[in-house]
Amino acid sequence: MGRKSGVTAEQIANLNHYRTDFRFSELEKLVLEYADAMTETPVEVPDALFSRLREHFNEAQLVELTSAIAWENYRARFSHALGIEGENFSEGAVCALPVRTANAVPGH
């Protein structure tokens, strides 16, 4: 889906470095920052980040973006909790792992 929307293989390979990678537009970096914030436990999206998002998206678009990120988080956590593994449909593709923050608790 991402590739059909113009996401390059280089962007996928460098996803963990989106903040500093020139291949990502400022808007893409902003959306990925939002996805990171929504994926943290507990979820804490700073007001300043949400204000920056409102500069680019209307309310309906923000609801849709938030829903898409929340759905992917739900799907990933649901599968992980049940031990559901990938079926190798994307063999050889990149599976980027989230960057751990300094205060992250292992296993959470």
What oligomeric assembly is this protein in? single chain
Major sheet: size, sense and barrel closure?
Answer: none
- Spans where pLDDT lies below 50 across 5 or more residues: none
Helix content: 40-55%
Order of helices and strands: HHHH
Please report which band the strand proportion falls in: under 5%, 5-15%, 15-25%, 25-35%, 35-45% or over 45%.
under 5%
**Overall pLDDT:** 85
What is the global morphology? globular
Plain-language structure description:
The protein is mainly α and 108 residues long. It has a domain of 57 residues. Helix 2 packs antiparallel against helix 3.
How is the topology of this model organized?
Layout: H1 9-13, H2 26-39, H3 47-54, H4 59-81
Helix pairs in contact: 2-3
Outline of this structure?
This protein has 108 residues and is mostly helical. Helix content is 46%, strand content 0%.
Highlighted features:
mainly alpha; 4 helices; 108 residues
